[in-house]
Design goal:
Elements (H helix, E strand, L loop, with lengths): L1 E5 L4 H10 L5 E6 L13 E5 L11 H10 L2 E4 L10 H19 L7 E5 L11 E2 L13 H14 L7 E6 L1 E3 L13 H15 L4 E5 L8 E3 H14 L6 E6 L7 H12 L4 E5 L3 H9 L15 E2 L2 H6 L8 H9 L4
Parallel strand pairs: 1-2, 1-4, 2-3, 4-5, 5-7, 6-13, 7-11, 8-10, 9-12
Length: about 325
């Protein structure tokens, strides 16, 4: 069995390759950087020079023909994940890149299944439940990442007549559950870094008004858990010609209120955070703390996530619980 992976040189991508390396004869990883050595210790991994923003994706014609003839799976994980990125950059990577990947996949001779890494950010944060098999009708977005991933998922969902199409919607991917390794500041790490900077000051402040909904759930999943579950889904795939969507979100995910309580415990702070509606004053406070304004809408989301199929086909996901990795997340014993 052979698989082509886009985005394999990224944070999640490298975990995916290592998880899949024992399950495939050959793993082809697409990269614009021909000198990438991050996975060179794996004998069955071959780097393929290419770029998803180019129509043909693969630079070398001979390699392109080989992949079209031999690949059993394609895992499209490449994306620009940055809530602060501009529209043109997000659109090029997330929409055009996916469109080109689909164009390539349609030419494959023996494809068993096409896997697309989407995001739970496609959900409507003003609704209450995101179903696995449903993409809500949305017209308003607070950041270009969510908007372009939504548009890309629309294109992927239209492939259902092609055969086996699988959409993976991970939650907020955090660092390794065992080592804490993380490649960027994202999601909860903005608050952790703010606490590292201001914890001494906060110890003298009894309460702070903060823009958030205390009941909002934070849909976390460690990167190693996410990669393992995607690998398991691929290894169990029978190639059934249908569209399936999976939500990869850990169990016992904390509310914003619970997360802030754990954050205080980790740094020995007793400040109370008084929830208020979003307003310019508190936007300025978040900016002072180094928390981007694009993150604020996620602190008011009403969403919970359907995992019916995910649990049925991937019962192991129930082992991923916030209580087992939160100490690693904070880098403190809770």
């Amino acid at each position: 069995m052979k698989i082509l992976i886009t985005g394999a040189t990224g944070f999640l991508g490298q975990y995916l390759v290592r998880e899949l390396s024992s399950k495939f004869e050959s793993i082809y990883i697409l990269s614009r950087n021909s000198s990438f050595q991050g996975l060179s210790d794996l004998a069955n991994v071959q780097l393929v020079k290419g770029d998803i923003t180019q129509l043909e994706i693969i630079e070398d014609q001979k390699m392109r023909d080989q992949l079209l003839a031999e690949c059993d799976f394609v895992l499209h994980a490449a994306a620009l994940y940055d809530l602060k990125a501009c529209h043109s950059d997000c659109y090029l990577q997330n929409v055009v890149g996916t469109q080109n990947t689909i164009h390539f996949v349609k030419k494959m001779k023996k494809l068993k299944a096409f896997y697309y890494i989407s995001t739970i950010a496609v959900g409507d944060d003003q609704s209450f439940f995101l179903e696995e098999d449903h993409l809500p009708l949305r017209k308003h977005f607070d950041d270009f990442y969510s908007e372009t991933k939504y548009l890309a998922e629309i294109m992927v969902r239209e492939l259902h007549s092609m055969g086996a199409v699988r959409i993976i919607r991970p939650g907020i991917i955090i660092g390794d559950s065992l080592t804490g390794k993380m490649d960027k500041t994202d999601g909860p790490y903005y608050f952790i870094h703010a606490m590292e900077k201001y914890s001494t000051l906060l110890k003298s402040i009894p309460f702070i008004p903060l823009s958030f909904n205390p009941r909002t759930k934070i849909p976390l999943i460690p990167v190693d858990h996410c990669a393992r579950y995607i690998s398991l889904l691929i290894s169990r795939d029978t190639g059934a010609p249908e569209l399936k969507t999976y939500h990869l979100v850990s169990n016992e995910i904390p509310t914003v209120k619970e997360f802030l309580i754990d954050l205080n415990k980790a740094f020995g702070v007793k400040t109370l955070y008084f929830p208020v509606l979003r307003n310019p004053i508190h936007d300025s406070l978040l900016k002072l703390l180094g928390i981007p304004r694009e993150l604020v809408p996620f602190m008011f989301s009403k969403l919970s996530y359907d995992k019916t199929r995910t649990i049925e086909e991937l019962p192991e996901i129930q082992e991923s619980t916030y209580s087992t990795f939160k100490s690693i997340l904070f880098g403190k014993t809770l």
